[in-house]
Design goal:
By secondary structure, this protein is of the alpha+beta class. The protein folds into two domains: 328 residues, Outer membrane efflux proteins (OEP) (Up-down Bundle), CATH 1.20.1600.10; 80 residues, Outer membrane efflux proteins (OEP) (Single Sheet), CATH 2.20.200. 67% of the residues lie in helices and 15% in strands. The protein has eleven helices and four strands; from the N terminus they run H-H-H-H-E-E-H-H-H-H-E-E-H-H-H. The protein has a four-stranded antiparallel β-sheet with strand order 1-2-3-4, with no helix packed on it. The protein is elongated and about 145 Å long.
């Protein structure tokens, strides 16, 4: 009985444990529709290679037929001596033909294109996998930030409620003006409105996380108080940009598209070239006896040889396809250049987001201390009559805003750490585990 009770309590305790980034990511891998679709697309892309290989391997065809024949013949002969007859017989045949391409330039180019298409499919799937990590982290920290904003909005409402009550008491005893009471009332009403908006935003953020994982976890692990932001390694923007232009998955995808477009030009030009195949065939046919065609027979034919085809003129189709491929090649080249520039811009943005995030977090930590000291001093000044109710309200609002900015800066820093790795093309689950270590266990 005690053992069963212990097992039940353990199960309950496990059920209410806060979910962290890694556990949410594990759920997203099995529940996210975008990731599942990308995985299916990746599996489909792998089939491009055997399809391309099929164009240079032998092709064997088996065909057979059997038929019943009912033939009526009439012969023209001398007068008074007509001849006619009815023939009924069965005929059948079996044909096996094997073709081995010896020179088909376009087929070889198609095979080489298939290799690039497979590489492109792999890079695309990896990009979606990296995007899933960032989307999970973004949704996770958005929920934490929204929860923090709800708590701050509630604290602000409570503080302004206390100040409103005090302002009304001071007005009643004549130590404050009606303006102070009205100002406190306005601040309180605004705080209530902001709290409602914060709760609404929290619900939206939770539903966004639910879209990725398929469910809402009971609780999310919070950021540890021991969290300390660090600068990127290496702490050099140019090195990160240089790495991103070669390792970024976006660049790899665009490079594969450019290579495929170049190969398409060669393939279409190959339409002017001859093709040469080795062909072998075995034909076994038979036919039943008929009154007019003599006895039945069985025929066996075997042959092996070479088949050459040379395109002479196809109405300008090949030249048109070459011009089309050249235009697509230029487009792919420009898309590649644009992708490299975009990746470089994203890398610089993420790098600055990390480095400036470290400085901003430290500055806001100092601002929190200053804002708290300012509020304490203002309250003391109000007690001795050198500060007004409005001064206390302003100091309270400044402290709340600083706390909100501090939390937002921390979560933005965490996302930029992941985005920097995405830009460089090196983001893995280990990086997510690194960020996950910042959370309370």
């Amino acid at each position: 009985m005690k053992l069963a009770l212990f097992a039940f309590l353990l199960a309950v305790a496990s059920a209410v444990l806060a979910a962290d980034l890694v556990s949410i990511y594990r759920e997203a891998q099995t529940a996210d529709a975008v990731y599942a679709g990308a995985r299916a697309s990746y599996l489909a892309g792998q089939e491009k290679l055997p399809q391309g290989l099929a164009g240079i391997l032998p092709a064997v065809t088996l065909s057979a037929n059997t038929q019943y024949n009912d033939r009526e013949l009439q012969f023209r002969g001398p007068p008074n001596n007509p001849a006619s007859g009815t023939t009924r017989f069965n005929s059948n045949s079996l044909n096996v033909t094997a073709t081995q391409p010896l020179f088909r330039f376009q087929n070889w180019i198609t095979y080489e294109q298939a290799k690039n298409q497979v590489s492109q499919a792999e890079a695309t799937f990896l990009q979606v996998a990296q995007d899933l990590i960032v989307r999970v982290a973004q949704a996770y920290f958005d929920v934490l930030l929204a929860e923090n904003n709800v708590a701050l909005a509630a604290a602000q409402t409570t503080a302004f409620s206390e100040q409103l009550a005090q302002a009304k008491r001071n007005f009643e005893v004549g130590t404050a003006t009606i303006t102070d009471a009205n100002d406190a009332q306005a601040r309180h009403d605004l705080a209530v409105s902001q709290e409602i908006a914060a709760q609404n935003d929290l619900e939206i953020k939770k539903q966004t996380l639910r879209q990725i994982t398929g469910r809402l976890p009971p609780e999310l692990a919070k950021l540890s108080s021991r969290f300390t932001p660090v600068l990127p390694s290496p702490n050099n923007m140019d090195e990160w940009v240089e790495q991103s232009t070669t390792s970024s998955l976006q660049v790899r995808i665009a490079q594969a598209a450019a290579d495929i477009a170049s190969q398409e030009v060669s393939k279409n030009r190959g339409g002017h070239l001859p093709t040469l195949d080795a062909v072998a065939s075995y034909i076994d046919s038979g036919q039943g006896a008929g009154t007019q065609i003599g006895p039945g027979f069985v025929s066996t034919t075997k042959y092996i040889g070479l088949q050459l085809a040379l395109p002479i003129y196809q109405g300008g189709l090949i030249n048109s396809k070459v011009r089309e491929a050249l235009a697509n090649e230029e487009k792919a080249r420009q898309d590649l250049e644009n992708t490299k520039r975009t990746v470089a811009l994203n890398t610089r943005s993420a790098f600055l987001g990390v480095t400036n995030g470290v400085a901003q977090i430290k500055a806001l930590e100092a601002a929190l201390v200053s804002s708290q000291s300012s509020l304490d001093s203002t309250k003391l000044g109000q007690e001795v009559g050198v500060r007004t109710e409005v001064d206390v309200l302003n100091s309270t609002q400044q402290l709340i805003s600083t706390r909100r900015d501090h939390a937002q800066a921390i979560y933005a820093y965490a996302i930029n750490v992941l985005k920097l790795k995405v830009a460089a093309g090196t983001l893995t689950e280990d990086d997510l585990a690194y960020v996950n270590a910042w959370l309370e266990k």
